[in-house]
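Sequence only, no structure available. Ideas?
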Amino acid sequence: MNNPESQTPCRAGRRFPDLLGHFLFWPIAIGGAAFDLWSKKAVFDWLPSIPDQKYVIIEGYFNFILRVNLGAAFSLFFGQRTFLTGISIAAFGVVVGIFLFSGIHRRIMQIALGCMIAGIIGNLYDRAFNEGMVRDFIDVTIPLIGYNWPTFNIADSLLCIGVGLLIIANLTAQADPAPAPQQTKAR
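Reply:
I predicted one. Tokens follow.
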């Protein structure tokens, strides 16, 4: 499945993503982050005008409510703004580095990394420019077991989609064939 024509060579035999890879990764990353930031602003501007600051989408299952999280997922590292901002910046660098320099050529992986970058950017923006408070507004209840999932946002969803796609890609991956040895000219 390794298509050498779809990649541009770089140093040490590694390969940069092809043009289609860039056309998948960057629009997903930028568009996903923009959609996350727009949705947070829209809901946080609109919902205070609603009684109880709650808007029911599907009764008993799905609502919009206003919440802020000073931690990471499930409020881990609560109040550790500097640490979480640093982790987000490092994660951003690692994911972009993996996309650019690891020779990933599977489209599902490029899409997954784009989703992850979008989620990282959306929550990093809040940590850096919203006093460390990540804005959450999606409220889901699972009535069969009486569980209310912690409130989340579009960036969190994109991160989960990205991780899910990476898992699927790795579970369905076939071993890439070893590259053919280079032919040398006889002198």
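Residues 1-12 have pLDDT under 50 and may be disordered.
Hope that gets you unstuck.
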